[in-house]
Amino acid sequence: MTLKNALASPVKTLLTVKGKVVKLSPASKKRVEQNEVDFQEVMLKDTDSHATVAVWDKMVNTLQKGECVTITKCRVRLFNEQKRLTTTRSSQCEKLAYDETLLLVSDDEDDDVDNNGNWSNTPISDFKSGTITAVFDVDPYLACPTTSCNNTKLAPAESIQCMKCKNCGRNYGESACNNYIRATVMIEVEDSNKPPQKVAIFKPQIEKLFTSRGFTLPSSNDQTELLLKFFEIIPVDIKFHMINNTIKQLTCKRVA
Fold first, then answer.
1. For 89, how many CA atoms within 13 A lie in the half-sphere containing its CB?
2. Do the Cβ atoms of 168 and 149 come closer than 8 Å?
3. I need a surface site. Which of 43, 53, 81, 182 has the fewest CB within 10 A?
4. Could you report the per-residue pLDDT of 45-100, keeping only the tens digit for each?
5. Alpha helices, DSSP H only, in 102-159?
């Protein structure tokens, strides 16, 4: 489940969240039912939002900034009229050595959030101008069909002929999965002193690029065919909004 959806869940909901650790408070002790219990606040961030997780007991001082983690059985609580997450006695933390959706999330706190910790759509007038000049790789993959999993990349399940989502824990047959695409491209930002940079772009924005050049995405999601199509359309000028090195919104002129 995304952090944004987790914070939108009703108070007392039990859920699993995933994110990159971007901030940790010093460990301390809090009195709970007449006992002193180790306590720490951890800020997690994903591609859309961030959330504070109250970590207790044995999980305290086990996380480091920059680590990607999944924490199970967190509960939604209300602290000072704001929703936060807290671990429970049954919570488990898994450190992710590699995660597709968190790969390009920066390790820093962001200023691109409102007072409620929510990301919002950026007006086109605030988009930056730039040119996509190269493509490095294209990764077509099977994604979780559960909406709250935000197209998490699936992995083959052990011992059975299906795919498993690490986010929600469900297994799916290949025909039930979403076909999704992630590409890594080079973008040169107009009126910027920064050098060209590698950024990620996902299927909805890739479709916009292809459509603007009169192409449709190959139905087979063949990696080689996708790369060849990219080579045909670049360089391509766009206006875009980017969060954590991922192009979230873009617009480009249609070429006849």
1. 2
2. yes
3. 81
4. 888 788 889 999 999 999 998 889 999 999 999 876 678 899 999 999 999 877 76
5. none
The encoded tokens of residue 111 equal: 């200023």
Query: Is the pTM of the predicted complex or chain greater than 0.70?
Result: no
Of 92, 98, 103, 6, the residue nearest 49 (C-alpha): 6
Q: What type of residue sits at position 183?
A: A
Judge whether 32 and 79 are in contact, CB under 8 Å.
Answer: no
CA 4, CA 51: separation in Å to the nearest integer?
8
C-alpha distances (whole Å) from 37 to each of 31, 43, 59, 70, 77 are: 6, 20, 11, 22, 18
Tens of pLDDT along 5-30?
A: 999 999 999 999 999 998 888 899 88
184: which strand partners? Answer: 137, 200
